Automatic annotation (TrEMBL):
GO molecular function, a single term: heme binding
Organism annotation: Streptomyces roseolilacinus
Protein name in the entry: Cytochrome P450 hydroxylase
Pfam family, one: p450
Cross-referenced SUPFAM superfamilies: Cytochrome P450
Signal peptide boundaries: none
Record PANTHER family: CYTOCHROME P450 YJIB-RELATED, P450, PUTATIVE (EUROFUNG)-RELATED
The keyword Oxidoreductase belongs to this UniProt entry's keyword annotation: yes
Similarity comment text for this entry: Belongs to the cytochrome P450 family.
UniProt entry keywords in alphabetical sequence: Heme, Iron, Metal-binding, Monooxygenase, Oxidoreductase
Length: 437
């Protein structure tokens, strides 16, 4: 594929099912010229081994200052002043600054600290599903009905969990507008939606300022207070402090929301695996049942990862990448979804196998930018899958599979609405769940 013919990496067909394209690209080679909706031309890395190598390549940096003028002209990044104030978080930093900033946040997300809070997370999931099933159009667990998994559960559970972990007070957490999360889907200066986008930015920035001021006035033993104190001590700048809070509030919960939807859709498309997991999570779970649930979550992460592509990386000078010369400052993206379906690494890679082990998927990335919240996400997904299958008996899609609308965000996979029917099969309409591999 020549540099003059970049492959468009967008469109309904691609976002609905990108895996046939990824299969084709893997077979052609590890590096491909692509084009994004913003008009940005970039280089896409596919294949498991190539992805691992690229994500640990010391020559590739994350700082936006490395991007060349061609990238800057079209890159879908925030306008000033917000770009300078909110985009200097962990994902856009290189060592040694990245090392300092990452150390500030990792303790809150260690497996030990996350496990200590598992019971509380279970309570949050139960509260949300109690409310959802008590709604007039739901009908209750026994009678059955229809519920949108996203609006009733997936859009709220990850944020409520995150608030507990980082120390966001309930009153302030209740005022968070999920619409602000769309600031990671920028639109160009001439786009009619630009004023709406800039309004979201201002709203989120004001909210972050409120969070910081509250923690400064009411310090506690939590991550948000730790960030404020690090800023006051000069360990990080105000912009870095605000950017980390921004990253926590947006990147810390939206991918989990999307992953709940991709996981549930995968199970609905594979009825045998769905029934097996439902049997395992019902009632008192044995050690074997717990192990199956944990394996299932890992396989669901591999099979259809919500974080489809990594963020930008750049070479500081013209460099060779797997036999392709990449100009300095051109953007390089790694496809995590393509890597996770590589048959060279995963036998029967397009098959959902709940017993797959080992399962070294890259749903959380790889290298120094491996997601610091991976342990938290795993626990959230285990709880979410179990509770949804437990509380929504005979779960099935309430609309035809082909009517599901996948989010158009460049980096993400998921759906904004996931209506499911549950209970007796005559209690609500079902669109059917065709098995697809």
């Amino acid at each position: 594929m020549s540099r003059s013919e970049p492959l468009p990496l967008y469109g309904k067909e691609y976002k609905t099912d990108p895996y046939p394209l990824y299969r084709k690209l893997r077979e052609e080679g590890p590096v491909h010229a692509v084009n994004f909706p913003s008009g940005v031309n970039a280089w896409l890395v596919t294949g498991y081994e190539a992805a691992q190598d690229a994500l640990t390549d010391d020559r590739l940096g994350k700082n936006h200052d490395l991007g060349n003028s061609a990238w800057r002209e079209r890159a879908a990044i925030m306008p000033e002043p917000q770009h300078s104030q909110l985009q200097v978080h962990l994902l856009h930093q290189d060592p040694p600054k990245h090392t300092v900033m990452r150390k500030l946040v990792t303790e809150a997300f260690t497996p030990r600290n996350v496990e200590r809070k598992r019971a509380r997370f279970e309570e949050l999931a139960t509260e949300l599903l109690d409310a959802a099933l008590a709604a007039p159009d739901a009908g209750g667990e026994a009678a059955g009905g229809v519920v949108d998994v996203v609006s009733a559960f997936a859009a709220h559970f990850p944020f409520r969990v995150l608030a507990e972990v980082i120390g966001l007070p309930d009153a302030i957490a209740a005022r968070f507008d999920r619409d602000w999360g769309k600031v990671v889907q920028p639109v160009g200066p001439s786009d009619p939606q630009r004023p709406v986008y800039e309004g979201r930015l201002r709203g989120l920035q004001n909210y972050i300022a409120e969070v910081v001021e509250h923690k400064r006035a009411h310090p506690a033993d939590d991550l948000l207070t730790k960030l404020v104190r690090a800023c006051e001590a000069g360990e990080i700048t105000k912009e870095e402090q605000d950017s980390i809070v921004f990253q926590l509030l947006v990147a810390g919960q939206e991918p989990v929301t999307n992953q709940i939807t991709t996981a549930l859709i995968a199970l609905l498309r594979h009825p045998a695996e769905l029934r097996r997991l439902q049997e395992a999570v019902s009632g008192e779970m044995s050690d074997a049942d717990q192990a199956l649930l944990a394996r299932a979550v890992e396989e669901l992460l591999r099979y259809d990862s919500a974080f489809e592509l990594t963020t930008w990386r750049f070479f500081a000078e013209d460099s060779d990448l797997f036999g392709t010369t990449i100009p300095a400052g051109d953007s390089i993206i790694v496809s995590l979804c393509a890597a996770n379906r590589d048959p060279e690494r995963f036998p029967d890679a397009d098959t959902l196998d709940l017993d797959r082990s080992p399962n070294p998927h890259m749903a959380f990335g790889h290298g120094i930018h491996f997601c610091p919240g991976a342990a938290l996400a795993r626990v959230e997904l285990q709880i979410a899958v179990r509770q949804l299958l437990l509380r929504l008996p005979q779960i099935r899609l309430a609309v035809p599979d082909e009517d599901l609308v996948w989010v158009g965000a460049v980096l993400a996979r998921g759906v904004n609405e996931l209506p499911v029917a549950y209970g007796p099969t005559d209690a609500a309409p079902s669109g059917g769940c065709p098995v697809r591999h």
